[in-house]
Amino acid sequence: MILPRTIRRMKERRDHRDGPYAHLFEPYQGDEVVSLDCETTSLDVKKAEILSIGAVRIRGRKVMTSERLDIKLKPPASLTGDSIKIHKIRAADLVDGVDIDEALEQVLAFVGNRPILGYYVNYDIRVLDKYFRPKYGFGLPNKAIELSHVYHDIIKWKTVGGDLDLRFDTISKKLDIPIIQRHTALGDAITVALMYVRLRHGSPPSVA
């Protein structure tokens, strides 16, 4: 039986309320957001294996590049020429990569219960949950913030008629934010963070 995500998260919160990860299920009370991105071997969640994970914290108007996560995992057998064409990550680039278990521990420690921001963020969360659930018994319970939805909700009031172009490159260009190392996990996470700050605060974001 496949439970709807909201029901499953309620069950996981109940099951882990007295465990070592109970704090992850508490409502976040701070002012930080974590911009997160995964590079994977496929866009199909069921087939996708994680190659790298990048994340950076946002504190108010500042993108805290000094507080970042840049993880490379060991190369999976499914790393093929087709996926390499997209993310330009070869097996040779991952020779010093870590095991998935270590990567998951780093993600939990870095993200905590902060909201997770991303571009198609639900894909990244679903891929991570595929690994989290067998190991920890729960998926990421964090609130998710989709950049393209934030952009749409803010910009649509300035647009008369027609559909908004929500492609990554278009949003970056419209907001006058440079794309940093496209199709790298950390580069995309930083770029999304900068775009989010611009949308939220309407001024050039600062980097710390």
From TrEMBL:
Single GO MF annotation: 3'-5' exonuclease activity
InterPro entries for this protein: Ribonucl_H, RNaseH-like_sf, RNaseH_sf
The Exonuclease domain, residue ranges: 32-205
Pfam families in alphabetical order: RNase_T
Keyword check for Hydrolase: yes
Gene Ontology cellular-component terms listed: cytosol
Database matches in PANTHER family: BLR4117 PROTEIN, DNA POLYMERASE III SUBUNIT EPSILON
Full protein name: 3'-5' exonuclease
Lineage: Bacteria, Pseudomonadati, Pseudomonadota, Gammaproteobacteria, Oceanospirillales
